[in-house]
Amino acid sequence: MNTAALDLFQQLLRRALATPPAETRRLLHGRGRCWPGLEHLAVDWLEGVLQVQVFRPPADLQALCDRCRALATEQPAVKAVWLQQRYLPGSPGLWLLGEPRTQWQASENGLRYHLLLGHAQNNGLFLDMRTGRQWVREHVHGKRVLNLFAYTCAFSVCAIAGGAAQVVNLDMSRAALARGRDNHRLNGHALDRVRFLGHELFKSWGKVARGGPYDLVIIDPPTFQKGSFVLTQDYRKVLRKLPTLLAPGGDVLACVNDPALGAGFIIGCMAAEAPALQFVERLENPPEFPDCEPDGGLKVLRFHWGNTAVGPCIAAAQP
């Protein structure tokens, strides 16, 4: 980052922090490549904590840290600044201001989530999925939901808040599912309508199927998970199982967050592996996640098993 990029960084964040968001939001999405020189930066507002994520080694780390401190001292609402070096193994970070915090809480659309800072690459809540979580909350009343690759169960929290009859969460990380339980408890949810399966998906189809059939299946996998999931190889295997998991008339939210794969990848895989499911729409990403290429950011596509006509968005969704 040169001086001009640092000036732009400071200008954009000063504008965003003039009136800090009431809830957790992304303030700067440099990875959308809309601001030259900031392509490897992302800044999130964690309701008092400013989280700065750096995805490639900056030319002058000290200069970036100095700009972050200067911004924070201008804004009384900023209590701490956490700069995370995502380009290093383990994604370590530096507390540039305030007391180090390993645990924090985030709010989104009135729901609360536990965050862990400084423990791992991700803090527990993917902010670009906000509209996806809200869609689930608005469309699951009385329905049975399967949440694959559940991580910390944010979709599950939204589903129960929306009146889902039951949610089954599956993730191979039992620690992540334990945080999911805590997220439900944080929102005052009884757990009698929520199940947590700490298993590797491809060895657990029988257990997953016994909880169905489901009215909604959410598929939000990692791009790569060593020893268990490679998106380009394994996504099709998941889609192939949908007819045995989904109730007729049900919906699927199929997600991909790999800039190299467009929405057409999901549509093509679904057509080949589960042709009874018809593409309906692509959910819009939150406006604070602009991208210079429409297919560069998160893709959240809804498919329906029924007579729903193919939605008008299909042309835009294809690469």
From TrEMBL:
Keywords: Methyltransferase, rRNA processing, S-adenosyl-L-methionine, Transferase
Name of the protein described by the UniProt record: Methyltransferase
Entry annotated with the keyword NAD: no
Start and end residues of each S-adenosylmethionine-dependent methyltransferase domain: 25-303
Taxonomic source organism: Pseudomonas typographi
CDD domains (alphabetical): AdoMet_MTases
GO molecular function: methyltransferase activity
GO aspect biological process, one term: methylation
